[in-house]
Design a protein that fits this description.
With 292 residues, this protein is mainly alpha-helical. The protein contains eight helices and four strands, in the order ααββααββαααα.
């Protein structure tokens, strides 16, 4: 009887009480308040609460550390539960549903940035230069804006991401065939290509002929491409953790959802970049003078 209670006769996992949801919520709240404080600090303003001025950058980073600690602890517990045999076929299916829903929510984020860009690009008479409060001249890109050459660094980054999609697929197939060397090699190449993409985009941002605050073109460009660049960084970290786990022998051909989720996320990042390159770099800059 005691053994029957210790081993429930169902495929679901009833998790033990965990501090991570509450701690994660606290971290998110601190980040939200800290973000406002950080912005007030940057523009030299005050943010008084109960008579204290909390206009400083530190609250935001404290919240970020809380969230990162929560992520590390929560995902570590999930990995331990998998090793303990709690991730049955039903639990794995639900984990996949959760990852699909997360990626769907990310699609909505990017839909918002694309909406903002196309709203300004298709109706330039209504778009104003935010910093100078002047009309765009009825054209897109706005008059006076020099754009980046889409077939220079952006094309390089497109090739880099497409290659990284190939290497992560190679790693996935190697894992399914229990080829540990191919798995590790594919992940090493994918992480390296992700880092290379980030370096190229950082160089592009540093040498961009327009700034975020100069015009609606700069604002929509940097929001869309920068948000994608942030996802590339997150995806690279995700894959690097998978690389460490692959070296440690955590993944098997039968159980490797952590790697599968990282591969899904990376392919999502690839597809979004193709839309960014086609719509913002190529179509969105057509007809404007090219910088350099």
């Amino acid at each position: 009887m005691a053994d029957a209670h210790a081993k429930p006769q169902h495929d679901y996992h009833l998790v033990n009480p965990s501090p991570w949801p509450v701690l994660g919520a606290v971290g998110a709240l601190v980040i939200a308040i800290g973000g406002v404080c950080f912005m007030q600090y940057l523009k030299g303003g005050d943010f008084p609460i109960f008579g204290f001025n909390i206009s400083n950058p530190w609250l935001f980073f404290i919240g970020l550390l809380i969230v990162m600690f929560t992520m590390f602890g929560w995902w570590s517990d999930t990995i331990k539960e998998s090793h303990q045999g709690y991730h049955t076929r039903v639990v794995q299916l639900h984990l996949r549903y959760g990852m699909i829903m997360f990626i769907a929510s990310e699609v909505m984020f990017f839909a918002a940035w694309f909406w903002a860009f196309f709203d300004a690009a298709l109706f330039p008479n209504e778009a104003v230069q935010v910093a100078r409060d002047q009309f765009t001249g009825g054209v897109w890109p706005p008059k006076g804006v020099e754009v980046l050459d889409p077939f220079h660094l952006p094309l390089y980054n497109t090739i880099i991401l497409l290659l990284s999609g190939t290497t992560v697929t190679w790693a996935h197939h190697a894992l399914l065939h229990n080829d540990r060397r191919g798995l590790v090699s594919g992940l090493v190449l994918t992480v390296a290509l992700g880092l290379l993409f980030t370096c190229v985009q950082a160089y592009e941002y540093i040498h961009a002929p327009f700034a975020f605050k100069d015009s609606i073109y700069g604002a929509t460009f940097f929001m869309a491409t920068g948000f994608h660049g942030f996802h590339v960084i997150i995806g690279t970290i995700f894959l690097f953790v998978c690389l460490l786990r692959a070296i440690a022998g955590d993944f098997t051909p039968q159980k490797h959802f952590g790697f599968e989720a990282a591969a899904w996320y990376w392919h999502f990042v690839d597809v979004v970049w193709l839309f960014l390159f086609s719509c913002i770099y190529v179509w969105g800059s057509a007809g404007a003078p090219v910088h350099g």
